Task: structure prediction
Amino acid sequence: MSPDVSVVIVVHQNRAHIGRALAGLGGHDGVPHEVIVVDNASTDGAAEEVATRHPDIRVVRLARNVGFGRAVNAGAGLARARWLLLLNPDAEPVGDLLGALVRFARRNPEHRIYAGRTLGPDGADDGRSVFGLPTLRSYACFATGLSTAFRRVPALNPEALPGLDRSRPAVVPAASGCVLLVDRALFAELGGFTPDYFMYSEDVDLCLRAAGRGARPVLVPAARVTHLGGGSSTGVGKRVMVLRGRVTYLRLHWTPRRAAAGRALLAAGVAVRALGARLTGRAGYWPAVWAQRRVWLAGWPPPDADEPAASPGPPDAPPPPGQSGSSPAVGTGPGTDRSPNEATV
Result:
């Protein structure tokens, strides 16, 4: 039987969590699916764990950690189903995740991108699965600290969409790659994730480009996962990567003058938080993030033209033979796993 959904999970040092994510996929209501696990050069035995315990799962071992988007592209190139489901390795499905997404997508095919909800350990929505697009106004709110001081005020924290009723379906500007169903034909038309990003904001980029082709990303409330927490994307390192992703987005989608203003506002926001951390003794990571401003203000470097880019493949591309294998290296970067793209850093 041909699968309806190709689940693509990118792992890096996620052995402790991947088993729960895969077990949660078993709670579906008769949705034929395949699972493709792309291992970003883990050293903790994550790939071996999956291959041993789940021989039916295709495991792709990359020679290097190429980042989230390029690894997804490599997995998508093997997919056979109509829909791609991107799922974090530390996201545990709640209930019938596949059924909730596929049923909604079949009834509403015009959206083409379908976001689930990410829950905290307490079962409450963490507010990070969907968000607004960055604007100069949202960055001005970040620069002045208003988006932090007034998190629940939509006008002052617009990217986080605090006024959104997440218990009802809603069209949204952008969605996290943590739990995201995408029409595979659309993903192929877009060329997959833009390879300029190593980590963070590539999902915002994808949604923006998809909207340009008529897609309308939508929140599916019944599709839920518990986000168990990023294994290595925490603290200073995570915030530096989030900022690098944001600056890369500005470089690719804003005019040079507007992008310069956006970078200045981001820098001001980090400076304000670093000063506040020194004065209050709280959020002590911000001074270290500020100290690395030359790194994140440069964004992610463009992909090396001498290295092959992983391809999402055409919509009807057959999978290559074999259930596991290696893929050419397509980039470099620090070891990291994927967490929802944060509306505020």
